[in-house]
Write a structure and sequence with these properties.
Elements: H1 3-27, H2 39-59
Length: 75
């Protein structure tokens, strides 16, 4: 394996594992016996996380061309 690939694998495994753990810890906030929050609070958290995932998909170009709406004039 070349060093760029080795670095990518090492960092990706570490960072993705940390991100997953962080999301799980955020999920603990949903326990209403320990925390008080509104539906708006929950939506704001989810929207922020979804936006970051969407940005990540764009960076890795995982959003296929078919997912994007194409502009077409009617015949």
């Amino acid at each position: 394996m070349n060093s760029k690939r080795e670095n990518f694998v090492r960092l990706a495994e570490s960072r993705v594992s940390k991100a997953i753990k962080s999301i799980q810890v955020i999920g603990n906030l949903a326990n209403r016996s320990n925390y008080e929050y509104s539906e708006a609070d929950a939506k704001a958290i989810i929207n922020a996380l979804q936006k970051e995932l969407s940005d990540l998909q764009t960076k890795f170009r995982l959003v296929s061309k078919s997912d994007k709406q194409k502009f077409r004039l009617k015949k």
